[in-house]
Write a structure and sequence with these properties.
Number of strands: 8
Structural class: alpha/beta
Number of domains: 1
CATH superfamily: Aldolase class I
Helix content: 25-40%
Shape: globular
Largest sheet: 8 strands, mixed
Length: about 300
């Protein structure tokens, strides 16, 4: 991370904590809901099967920037499916950098060629070892690993959603992150139980067991991007929600924190580690502050 970017984020964090401001700094922009997969845990893919046009995306990027957003995530569906005439995801990343975003990331299922060195980070979904990943996402594991091997940059972070199916494969994914070239780190979430995927949600005891395993792997040198200091809050779902420093924009509609905020009761079951970490950070949790500083400077 550039020193100028680090100083900007540090000033924002200090201002948010001391002045108790709730200004956003992290924005997620939905490019499309189209996806080439039909994953068991997904509740948002291929609902309208729409790809939003380039000019609309640019307009939404400007809206986010003018709001103070400086960390931008491009999401789908599958983000690498996004195209408008001769424009691709690369054009959006480059435009985001030109616009002034300090950190631009793309979230993908990894089944497309990973040639995107302009992105600060590619968050790539890998949901377990070959057997469990395939049970959730279809027969894509080997294709994904080949794409990682042939990636043009080492800006990849594995991204695992832990659920009833794959909860026993955390060690496998941590070891892959540790041993695989082009992979910087691994980031975990717990499954957030939308109404059509409630059966995949973990119990409190299962969450605790998973956090214990992640902590064990961190002690063994696994490059985990998550913060151990946030684990107790994730296990008990006791972190503040929603996170006002995060917003999502789709079709010009802006939601605080995530698209699920309007679903009754879902915030109280949120499994997003990053949301918990940011919420605790901007509430002034000292342990989270120190650990985030150390972890992000190491892996990002």
């Amino acid at each position: 991370m550039k020193l100028s970017s680090f100083l900007y984020f540090a000033r924002f964090g200090i201002r948010s904590v001391l002045l108790k401001k709730q200004e956003p700094i992290i924005g997620s922009l939905i490019l499309t809901d189209r996806c080439n997969l039909s994953c068991k845990h997904c509740s948002v893919g291929n609902k309208a099967s729409v790809i939003y046009p380039y000019e609309q995306i640019l307009s939404e990027m400007r809206i986010l920037y003018d709001m103070g957003i400086r960390v931008l995530f491009f999401y789908g569906g599958e983000a690498f499916l996004w195209r408008d005439k001769n424009k691709t995801i690369r054009d959006l990343v480059i435009e985001g950098k030109k616009m002034g975003f300090l950190f631009v990331s793309v979230v993908t299922n990894g089944t497309y060629k990973l040639d995107l060195l302009e992105a600060d980070l590619i968050l790539l979904s890998l949901d377990g070892n070959r057997k469990k990943h395939s049970e959730i996402r279809g027969n894509t594991f080997d294709l994904i690993m080949d794409n990682i091997k042939n990636a043009t940059s080492d800006n990849i972070c594995l991204y695992m959603a832990i659920n009833k199916i794959n909860k026993n494969t955390i060690r496998d994914v941590c070891n892959l992150a540790k041993e695989t070239d082009n992979v910087r780190a691994v980031s975990f979430n717990f499954h957030t139980p939308y109404s059509d995927t409630r059966e995949l949600a973990l119990t409190r005891e299962e969450k605790q067991e998973c956090c214990d395993v992640i902590a064990e792997m961190m002690d063994n040198g696994a490059p985990v991007l998550n913060l151990r200091s946030a684990f107790p809050y994730l296990v008990d779902n006791s972190f503040p929600t929603p996170c006002h420093q995060c917003v999502v924009i789709e079709r010009g509609e802006i939601s605080t924190c995530g698209r699920c905020i309007e679903i009754p009761g879902l915030c109280e079951q949120c499994g997003y580690f990053f949301v918990a970490e940011c919420s605790l950070l901007f509430k002034g949790n000292i342990r989270v502050m120190i650990e985030m500083l150390r972890t992000y400077l190491k892996y990002i």
